[in-house]
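ok so i was messing around last nite and threw this chain in just to see what happens. nothing serious, just curious
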Amino acid sequence: MKAIISAELVFDDKNYIKKAPIFNRKASVIDVLKTGFDGGHFDHHDSLYYRPFVTLTFYLEKRIIGFNAKTLHLTNVIIYILGIIIVYLFLLRQNLKPYSAEFITLLFAISPINVDNVVWIVSRYDLFLLLFGFLSLYLLDLGIDKRRKIYYILSILFFAMGMFSKETFLIWFLYLPVYEFFKRKTISFYYHIINFLIIVSFFIIKNGLLYFGTLSLNLKYSFLGYLKLIIFSLGAYFKFMIFPFILPKFYFVVKFNLLYIFLAFLFIVFFILVSFLSLKQKKLLFPLVLFIISFSPYIYLIFTELAPLIIFPRYMLIPYFAFLWLVFLLFFEKLKNKIKIGVLGGLFFLFVFFDIQSIYVYKSELDYWKYSYNFNKKSSYVAYSLAASYYENKNPIFAEFYLKKALKYSMRKSTAYYISLLFSSIEIKKANYQNAFQWITKLNKLEKMFYIPLYLKIEKLFKIESLYLYEGVPYKAEKVLLTIKKMKPYNLLVYQKLFNFYCSYKKWNSALMIEREVKNKFMKNVCCFNTLKIKRMVEEMTDTQKVIFYMSKQNYRSAAKLLESLEGKTERDYFLLLEAYLRVKETNKASELIANFLKDRKDYLARKKLGFFFLKSMYRVKDALYYFKESLKLKPDQPQLKTLLNYLEKLNLD
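result:
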């Protein structure tokens, strides 16, 4: 429990929640209910998914206690526990042998296959699918037995909540009449009609009124090609169920090999065996239906734009429960109590052991993607994601290394866009602006080839703004930021950038206008915009402090001018001035400064320091290698530097 709550926000947790405009601006509940789940990080535009109940829970959580990794994880844990309790109550009504309901519930609750659904914050919709699905089923069961309308009404209510939590909840519309028919050989017509109307209403609101997109079909393979994909996906999913221990995180590209063919064969044999036995053992019928129907949405994905094949182990929440139920009925109930307790005890300790391992992968986003990369070394998207994580951890060198690995493999056009964006960021960090513009040109070409969501286009504009700022063309940078502000009036980042820009160029009136606009549009304390305080601080700063201030705001020209005027420069001042020159492309001045620096310091240490400057401040491996080699010429006995040199040469970045 402690490990789950202390986990970091990773991947979409940050994008969909912390960066989401809807949670930062002054939005009403109606605004939230009109908001898409994914487009532009919880925005109305470009969204394929409409999950208003989930979005509403995040909105209320933000308003009541604020966003915090611990409380967000705790909320997920509470929802999961409630779901497990309802599953247990439902199983108690299924006429199982003593302690069977307890054993099935316990194994399901602690299975490693469910870890991602709990620890990954955005997967709250799957937890609601579990909770509301079994609530609607449990209450229907009570309604059948007790013949009271209140249970049917409550079942309908929770069905509606589930439907507005995740689109694939609609498969519960199939479970409910099947369960009722098995239970009493007839169905409540009006009850199921109301549920059907809820589904229709959902899609009218989603597609007809709010104009959200839909995951489209993309039939680009032959019949045999799709048959192959179905076989391999069944094999992969079945593998997760029979061996739910070491699982990929979030993303797994199936390798087409004989193992998955064999596992798909086992899946089919298992299905035929259970189907045959269910003719005599009626208690197998409903878990079998639950098992088969719950696979249908994930087979459907094969025929969409997500093909060729993406496997998500976390999708196995309901299929895995049904699988456990069937296995228990087929095998475990027939075992003697001592053997049963021994087997289940062994599984309990295995599950807990791998649960802990799986949870600790979430201790940081970098660990998360390192783990995922071990399963997906030939996935361009996973390599990109690991690179992006290194970049966010201020390690552009490793980011570039894994980006180059990503380029070796086939990729979707959207992945190519992400990679080009990150490459442009790295080149900007290295002050290779010409290379950065080349990557941006590639982005423009990709935009002409296929549809790009608005939030990604804005990411590109932020790169262009940074280029103008670094090149010392502030009026162009300001123009780009104002364009973004017009396109996305509730993007907090653009306000932060504009505010920093105006403060660094001492345009205090403009900064004050941005501050007022932020206070009108966004929640209180969403960010610290205090123009008068910053102005007073700048006025009281020493020259050295002003240099740091300018450089932190990317105003390198002002920093360079101030450093040039300083008398009695320290070694730190030399390196700050060198960085400022390189950032604003004053290459001649930079070369002269290096020459003067080395002229006064002819020892190996000066060259070593220059090497580390290029490595840590400019991320230029080639320049760093040159000065490290020069240092070793003057003093060969530097074993640690030799090790670093060999390591950098193996990276082969430049």
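not much to say yet. The radius of gyration is 29 Å.
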